Amino acid sequence: MSRDAWCGCGSTRSPRLPGSFAVRGKLFARLMIGLTLLLSLPVCLGAQDVKVHIEPPAPKPTPDATSKATEADSDPGLKFNHGKPFQVPVDLVLVNVTVTDDWNRIVTGLDKENFTVMEGNKAQEVRHFSNEDAPISLGVIFDMSGSMSDKVAKARAAVIEFFKTANPQDEFFMITFNNRPELRADFTKSIEDVQGKLVYTVPEGSTALLDAIYMGINKMKDAHNAKKALLIISDGGDNHSRYTESEIKSMVKEADVQIYAIGIFDQAPVQPEEIAGPALLTEVTEVTGGRMFTVNNPSELSDIATKIGIELRNQYVLGYRPTNRNKDGHWRKIKVKLLPPKGLPHLNVYFKTGYYAPSQ
After folding, report:
1. N or C: which end of the chain has fewer CB within 10 A?
2. How is the chain split into domains, by residue range?
3. Is residue 241 within 8 Å of residue 208, measured between CB atoms?
4. Which pairing describes strands 21-22 and 52-53: parallel, antiparallel, or unpaired?
5. Do the Cβ atoms of 103 and 14 come closer than 8 Å?
6. Residue 339 CB neighbours (<10 A)
């Protein structure tokens, strides 16, 4: 479920149109010409999925530029990175942000001035901004229940396509689940190792989805990278877990892990867990700043998996020190307001909805 980018436009759902354009040069008018041309192209142009890029204007020098540079050097939380890995203070709240247009294409090239972060009703000073492709610790949670029998081949292919977006510094693990979750591949940088373990799995049994999410979040405690994400591939809701929905939702809110899901749902679900499946995955993903993609045709799985992989590597990271310094352990709501360059069409923004303040 997308949240509006607060651009003064209503949220609309439009068909996904693969395609892209890049804005080069200093004339911003070219951006609008390129966008107009693209939106007029027919959907049948193909399956290329390229980003919409905005070239930000060069910053103007200011009289106090030297003093600001000195301040940034003395405080790593004030450094705005555009490609290098970063380290931030422990009291800096980091928010991963994805921006898309209404054709579900990733929008890159925005700058710090295009974002405002609210915690509760108070605007926060964005002290860190970056859009680097940081290394990711990523877990794949793969449904191997009996109902996946006719979908498993295409689902395996989707995982392979997803891994093609990986970087050498990324690490992965894989959990499969039916009656219970099982760690098939521990953290590794070898994509082939994870793929090989998936080949020998056979769909059977019930669906312990919540238990698998619990195992995935718990496994992330062993991650070596600051950025963490889970990808769930499943065709239905839960019918065999020990953990409850409320327990898992609380756990997900506490964990600093983005969750994405690909839901392969039946058009006319009959069982209660099948009916509840889409809402469950939507709630679990959106609170983390991830998304749930519904797939009606298993042939779409590979394209969606590739899109998620690209999205994870083209996010903005906003960091701020909360004005509320109370260590009360309470849930703090976050909203990200997008202030796009003038003339752009409606954009959508995705981000985690909050975090728990430290308790001591």
Report:
1. C
2. 3-133+314-356, 136-312
3. yes
4. parallel
5. yes
6. 13
d(CA 177, CA 206): 9
- Which pLDDT value is given to residue 51? 67
The encoded tokens of residue 91 equal 């009291």
* Closest to 236 measured CA to CA, from 286, 295, 291: 295
Side chain identity, residue 337: K
Burial class of residue 315, CB neighbours in 10 A (0-12, 13-18, 19+): buried
Closest C-alpha among 11, 127, 117, 1 to residue 72: 127
Residue linked to tokens 């499946």 = 277
Angle formed at CA 330 by CA 328 and CA 336, multiple of 5 degrees: 125
- pLDDT exceeds cutoff 80 at 243: yes
Whose CA is closest to 297, among 192, 166, 180, 151?
151
Query: From its phi and psi, is residue 354 left (phi > 0), alpha (psi between -120 and 50) or beta?
Result: left
37: pLDDT strictly greater than 70: no
Instruction: Fill in the DSSP letter of residue 33.
Output: H
CATH class for domain 136-312?
Answer: alpha beta
**What are the tens digits of pLDDT across the range 304-340?**
999 999 999 999 999 999 999 999 999 999 999 999 9
